[in-house]
Structure formats: structure tokens, C-alpha cells
Amino acid sequence: MALVPDPLERTGSYDFHEFDVLANFDNDSMQVGITWDAGTALAYDLDLYVDRLIDGAWTPVGQSTNSQGTLEGDAAEGLSMLSPIPGRYRTRVHNWASTQIMYHGTVGFTSDGIITKQRNVKTVGGRATTDRPDTTTLAQIHTIYFVPSDGTDNALDTDGTLENALAAMNQWFANESGGRKMRLDTYSIKGVARPDITFIRGLKTTAEYAADEAGAFTAVTNELAARGWNAYPGAKRYLIYYAGPAEDDGICGTAFLTLGSGFAQYSVVFLGAAPGCGARDFGSPETGAGVSESIAVQEMLHNEGQTVPEALHFCAANQFHICTAQVGSLLTLVSRGLDPESVDALFPFVTFALRDKKLDKDRDDYYNHPFLHRDFAFSPFWE
Q1: What's this model's pTM, rounded to 2 decimal places?
Q2: What class does CATH assign to 15-110?
Q3: What is the rounded CA–CA span in Å between residue 328 and residue 351?
Q4: CATH class of 123-307
Q5: Which residue, 8, 152, 187, 344, is the most exposed by fewest CB within 10 angstroms?
């Protein structure tokens, strides 16, 4: 029973139900859901969260927070978690704005019949098509190489291309931040931590993703969420290299942007973007971070809610980016390479390889700045 409506979460009146995920079962995925009878109510919005007990503290690991109300939206919330870690879990139902307080909850598990030990032996050091067991419970970035059903598989996940690109990106972060790096999802092979990169073959053709009325980005990320790649956004981010074209020649990458205090989850680099994007200009630790990494970093900064309108160089001509010129003069200055912020990682146009860019170059917009608005320096995704 979800108690009184509490959209601002001031009362903390959640409805909790605890359960265990046991270690001696081959749980490839866990499905958690709630349904309720909306009846004739205009307001019937309930939200579902899943927490795991980690070191004595309840930690969010999944959520489903669709909108319901004014006779729109199904009276249901549900999520799927891949390879749930054994331990104590709980569901947490929040009455966001519902006059209907009774609901029905379910927890279910699926298995492919292949025991986990056998499957992991096959994927260690080679191609993985599932998320390998996490080596940490802290916030982390998981990389996905996503190829449409008819797309060409260039083995970027196993030939070292993406692994080198991630290393170059993190070296850039270290150079720009005084030694700090992003926490990547990793696995261990012979005692060495390697980035956990998953290969996913899409369920649709390249043309079908492109023809989706919501765009390829939404089509791909919706499919990933439906296939279980939907961990709690504050715990796991998905950096997706999509082997297909963008919706427009002017788009090199796309991400969900969070406008609140939380985190968005999906960042996409369009490997089939227009040649001018440089989406396949991958870097390495030897050459430095390339243009592809510029795209990836900018999109992940959007996942972090950057940058906010309060930022000193918030770009009115291309919102949630950084620039000095505003509206009418921006394109002129961009075309001439004259905007002083053009070397910033959040400048609206990729323009340069990441090795030639700066992370908030004057420390006055979104990283380690002296103002009161959101600061990327405090992100939980730093190591």
C-alpha cells in the first residue's frame, strides 16, 4: 500500500518490501513490477525503486518512474536487471501523486539454462554479450558496441579500438583534473582490470532505426532499456557506440540531459555520422584522445546535467553548451574559429580532437567553479 501523495518526498512515506536473491541459482535477469487499478482517478502516479543492501546501507540499483495522470499512462511500473548480484534487496514504492494507494507487486527471475561459470569462462578476454559481474558497487560507466541487425560488425569491442579510446579519454580527464579519472565498468583477467565492453546486435535493421518516428537515438536506447540495460542511473551510465547514422548530418552524438539533481543514463556516439563529425577518429594512449572521444565526453557531460543556465558562458544559441558569442554572432565566430570557448569540451561543435580540448578551461562554468550551481567535480562517477 502506497501511502499519502508526496511529490517532493518530504515525508519519506515509502512502502517497502524486502527479499533475497540467492547465490545458488542461475539468475540471468530479475524482473520487478507493480500494477494498480487507476479506476477513474485523474491522478494515479506511483513510482518504483529497487535498493540493495551494501555494507549495511540501502543503495538504489534500479528504478521505473513513468508518468501517469489525466487518463494517460499505464497504471504500471516495471524494470529488469541483468545478472542481479546475490544479496538482500527491497522494493520501494513512492506515491508521487496518486489517490489510488493499493497496488500489486511481483518479482521474477529468468535463466537461459547455461550455468554462470561456463558462460563467464567463454567471455573473459573475448566478446561479451552480457554485463560481466561488477568489480565495484560504486557509480561506473559501462561501454556498449551496438550494431544493427544488418550492420557490419567491425569488432571494435574486441580488437582494442574501444579499449584504447577509453584509456585515451581517461588520460585526458587525468590531465585536465589533476589526476582524476572516470570510473569505468571493468572486469579482471589474470589480475589485470580491463574495461567491460558489451557487444549487442540490434533487433532492427539500420533503416528501421533511422525510420523510427522518435529518431535512431530513442529507438536504440528504448530497445536497450527493454532488454535490461536500465540499471539505476546514479549507479551505472551507458556509453553506446552505435554503428549507424545519426538523425541529421549535423548530429555526431546525442545524450539524455538531466535537468534536476540526478543523472541521465544514455550517451550515444553515432559511428555512422557524417564524415565531418570524426566519430571514427579514435584515440589511444600513444596518440592521445581523438575526435570520437570529444563526442563521447560532451554527451556524458550532458548526462551529468551540464551545463546549467546559471553558468557564466551558458550558450543561448545552443543551450546546455558553452560559448562566448550569443545567438546572432555565434555561427559567424564558429565558422572562423574565433570563439574563445571553442576549445572547451562543451562547446556546441566538436571541432577538435579531445587531446586539444579543455575541461572548463577557466574553471568558471561547470568544473571546480566558485559558484553555487551544479559542479561536475562532485560527480560520483569519478574514481
Answers
A1: 0.72
A2: mainly beta
A3: 20
A4: alpha beta
A5: 8
